[in-house]
Amino acid sequence: MSTREGKLVGRRIVITGAASGIGRATAELFAEEGASLALLDRNEAGLAGLQGTPVAVDVSNEVSVETAIDRAATALGGIEGLVNIAGIFPVAKLAETSLELWNETLAVNLTGPFLVTRAALRHLMKADEPTIVNLGSASAIVPYPELSAYGATKGGLAVLSKVWAAELGPKIRVNVVCPGMTRTRMVSDWHPDPAALAERAKQLYALQRIAEPVEVAKAILFLTSSDSSFITGSTLLVDGGRTFH
User: Shortest CA distance to 61 belongs to which of 119, 139, 3?
Assistant: First the structure.
């Protein structure tokens, strides 16, 4: 029987986009590591089965975000860590990218982390060794075709994370995790043929496969835990070698 103490015992952490994919894997891992969690998602029903306080939120809506963060802080008795994962993944050629789609992607993927972080900031500033981890994408480093809106938001979030690290240090550490293709519904919708996806991964990735959600969650755990106590403003690629291969 293991007697290992979890890396997040006693930590009070908010995770957005916790209902599915990388967000859900992160929520499950953080719970295993002893964190007290507030789990935010626009699909509150999708949070069923997870350990933590479920909170419905539209991250693109200022009032919704302020209300959700207040609920989270009250439930947890404060906020010591924030993980911004909520996002959408539109795939469209430039000529077919409507202004509506462009604006929606920016609202969720870039304005969303801004609103959530700004709302949580007053709570984080009261904490000991607070952390913020944003979920970026390897497509911010090596862009894919047909991802104009998505790539722009993830590139913006990578820079925004560095700005925050410079502005909020030394009090708050801020980092961004940039995964490659991960086994989530977003990716399966993009590449619905498993055999074709596996073949594409062999061509593009040095490790010749895509990531499992928990592998990305472990990187987020590292940057949230004290194991990364001297790391801030960093972009951690969890991409199986995609960006150099």
Answer: 119
- CA distances to 132, 170, 228, 229 from 129, rounded to whole Å, are 10, 9, 11, 8
Please tell me the distance from the alpha carbon of residue 184 to that of residue 206, in angstroms, as a whole number: 20
Is residue 187 assigned to a domain?
A: no
Instruction: For 118-172, give the DSSP string.
Output: HHHHHHHTTSSS-EEEEE--GGGTSPPTTBHHHHHHHHHHHHHHHHHHHHHTTTS
Angle at 146 between CA 143 and CA 150, to 5 degrees: 65
- State both tokens at 160: 């925004």
pLDDT computed for residue 156 by the predictor: 97
Question: Model confidence over 170-209: pLDDT tens digits?
Answer: 999 999 999 998 988 888 888 888 999 899 889 999 999 9
What is the structure's pLDDT at 1? Answer: 43
pLDDT digits (tens, 9 = 90+) for 29-48: 999 999 999 999 999 999 99
CATH of the domain at 229: 3.40.50.720
Which pLDDT score is estimated for 3?
52
Residue 98 falls inside a structural domain: yes
What is the count of structural domains for the chain?
Answer: 1
Name the residue range of residue 24's domain: 12-181+213-238
Annotated catalytic residue 144: no
CB 15 within 8 A of CB 83: yes
The active-site residue out of 30, 89, 150, 205 is: 150
